[in-house]
Design goal:
74 residues; 0% strand; elongated; mainly alpha
């Protein structure tokens, strides 16, 4: 009897979650890019800094900026 109740509850839970699967996979259409971005020959990249919690992140505060800058140079 207890197993049947659990099975029913789990089945209803799964059926409820399946309703939201199509909504999760739907993506918004891509926004159009301005012509200035498509024709640009130079970009300005700035490091705005921000809070850095050494207990949450490894490396130094500028690691993300350095990695991004290196990827843009490549």
């Amino acid at each position: 009897m207890m197993l049947n109740t659990r099975l029913i509850v789990v089945s209803l839970g799964i059926a409820t979650m399946l309703q939201f699967v199509p909504a999760l996979s739907a993506q918004a259409p891509a926004a159009p890019l301005p012509a200035q971005i498509l024709t640009a020959k130079k970009v300005f990249i700035s490091n705005a800094g921000g809070g850095f919690d050494k207990d949450l992140w490894s490396g130094n505060p500028s690691r993300t900026y350095n990695q991004f800058y290196g990827a843009m140079k490549a």
